[in-house]
# Entry
Amino acid sequence: MLLTKKLQAGSLIFSEGSADKSMYIVMEGSVKLSVTHHGMELELAVIHKNEFFGEYEMFHNKPRSSSARAITNVRLVHIKNRMQLDQFIGQYPAFSGKMVRMMGERLANTNASLL
# Structure
């Protein structure tokens, strides 16, 4: 069974540089992803209901590349590892298509910002 977390607005979900490898799916609310650059917080993205974040670290053995903080009160599905992700996809097969589309969009946006 997957863990659902409820967090208050302003709660830190994970910190840039931490070793956590979990991913999250937003069921309610919004989450801000940000990095610290020269002592300033830079917003990377806002993640909304039915979107996910944290997947990069699940598939790569690297520290967190950003911090995640609840903008509003949130309810998150907490997926701790690939086995749990496979279970979630088994229960909700349409999620795999959404995940592929969103990851493709993120890659395209990253490429566009570099060109």
About this structure: The CA atoms of residues 12 and 69 lie 4 Å apart. Residues 94-114 form the longest helix (21 residues).
